[in-house]
């Protein structure tokens, strides 16, 4: 695959774009960047125009001010679509990116063609909430890589870590190199916004897939099922034996799930548009 050259929007968002067809936007998780999507870019670009970008506070994108709200992250995506002159796109969000995708679909419904929420959070239990709040405090005190080893253990299987030490080391370095304030601002949202506008999720009226891994301890199958139950017609998929970073650890498996959904959503949309015409 040819190396893609990052580009920037007028507001400074760093992004990659490749492929032809209907646009699909990929949103990474906290502490990561657009590079996490390499497996999906390769798998989806033969079928769609694929856009991956760095969230506020990450990679080469601008740093948010302390206390920035989730809506600003949705507005960053809106500015990206405006820059690319895209009237709408399918939005795929992973982990924190799933919260951004939800916020975008609620605030910019007319720009959302379909929605995929991967390994994201919803309605944490008191114990789960206490755990993520504790990790936020550790990050505030010790920096973005304060929880790196524990995070990698949650994110990847032991077998994958042992077989791919160079990639694990690179992800550990990505975590450590994050801007401390940008990371903390984003992590605080990740820790507190799992019920963001939960009572309005029924307003999302586009094809939606909510998926996670069977062994994802922070974005559990029960969370996925509960979130999907709030969105009319949403599908739920739980991938057997997968942990949090399933897009990286098992890209072929995740890509097949995504392509199955994206092609069905595309066909449904074209059918509706044909009937209207």
UniProtKB/TrEMBL annotation:
Residues 23-250 form the AB hydrolase-1 domain. It holds the Pfam family Abhydrolase_1. GO terms for molecular function: catalytic activity. Gene3D superfamilies: alpha/beta hydrolase (3.40.50.1820). Transmembrane segments: none annotated. It comes from the Bacteria. This is 3-oxoadipate enol-lactonase.
């Amino acid at each position: 695959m040819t190396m893609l050259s990052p580009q920037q929007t007028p507001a400074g968002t760093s992004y990659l774009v490749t492929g032809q067809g209907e646009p699909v936007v990929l949103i990474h998780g906290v502490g990561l960047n657009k590079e996490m999507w390499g497996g999906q870019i390769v798998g989806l670009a033969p079928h769609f125009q694929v856009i991956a970008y760095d969230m506020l506070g990450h990679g080469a994108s601008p740093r948010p001010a302390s206390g920035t709200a989730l809506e600003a992250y949705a507005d960053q995506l809106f500015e990206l679509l405006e820059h690319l002159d895209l009237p709408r796109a399918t939005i795929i969000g992973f982990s924190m990116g799933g919260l951004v995708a939800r916020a975008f679909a609620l605030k910019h419904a007319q720009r959302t063609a379909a929605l995929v929420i991967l390994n994201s959070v919803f309605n944490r239990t008191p114990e789960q909430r206490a755990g993520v709040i504790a990790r936020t405090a550790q990050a505030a005190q010790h920096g973005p890589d304060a929880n790196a080893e524990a995070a990698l253990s949650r994110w990847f299987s032991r077998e994958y870590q042992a077989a791919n030490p160079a990639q694990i080391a690179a992800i550990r370095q990505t975590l450590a190199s994050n801007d401390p304030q940008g990371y903390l601002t984003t992590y605080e949202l990740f820790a507190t916004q799992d019920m963001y506008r939960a009572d309005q999720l029924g307003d999302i009226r586009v094809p939606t897939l909510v998926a996670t891994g069977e062994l994802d301890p922070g974005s559990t199958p029960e969370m996925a099922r509960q979130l999907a139950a709030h969105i009319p017609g949403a599908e739920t998929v739980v991938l057997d034996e997968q942990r949090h970073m399933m897009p990286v650890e098992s890209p072929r498996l995740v890509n097949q799930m995504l392509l199955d959904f994206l092609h069905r959503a595309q066909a449904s949309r074209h059918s509706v548009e044909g009937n209207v015409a």
